[in-house]
Description:
mainly alpha, 0% strand, globular, binds zinc ion
Amino acid sequence: xxxxxxxxxxxxxxxxxxxxxxxxxxxxxxxxxxxxxxxxxxxxxxxxxxxxxxxxxxxxxxxxxxxxxxxxxxxxxxxxxxxxxxxxxxxxxxxxxxxxxxxxxxxxxxxxxxxxxxxxxxxxxxxxxxxxxxxxxxxxxxxxxxxxxxxxxxxxxxxxxxxxxxxxxxxxxxxxxxxxxxxxxxxxxxxxxxxxxxxxxxxxxxxxxxxxxxxxxxxxxxxxxxxxxxxxxxxxxxxxxxxxxxxxxxxxxxxxxxxxxxxxxxxxxxxxxxxxxxxxxxxxxxxxxxx
Length: 291
Ligand SMILES: [Zn+2]
């Protein structure tokens, strides 16, 4: 399958820099200019870090359009300042692209300072971006929080009390189940949209029918879902901020100071094999945008 390619591209940092100095990305950029609407989808898909966890099931079970709307978030909120919006957006993009500086990311960038990829809080799993929301008891708290947000937004938008059956269905949905296996391996073709994907800020398609059953109006259902996910992202961000506070303590106790942290990481090198793969990814990205 096409996904088996990805294990070859584990040296995360290398092409990121090339993406930034953009001489190789002319074709992608031109494409984005002409098709602004699908810009974000394509840029997600042209990053191999996403391809590491995205399989056909998860691709199909994700509501990409709505996920993007929440990501761009301009129409959803009416009360927030633009600064705050931008910070949440930037957080969301980093989260989706595995760019939040977790141990795994730091270890790749600066192995001489961060000698291990393991999460310093549980010492069991690599601290990937997703793991931040899966460490120890975090999933239980966050799953309940997710249901709580939905409950609040539902009442706020419909003026009705939330049916406990709806919340039960949501709580038992596959998208709220933690897939532990995916923490220690790449995604397999059989894997489905799970809590692991929800904490990346993606919206599962299946939530629509569950909620719509209790609202009966498409437009309101959409609003409820988008607002829920906007708040959900704020929760994910607060979780991340809390983790950063704890991480700072860990750094101090391990004598990792500001001077060390500011030292430069390794220089990237050209990965020609990846450039070829990328052309393919752009095609897939286009296909998915149209789907
Ligand atoms: Zn952990």
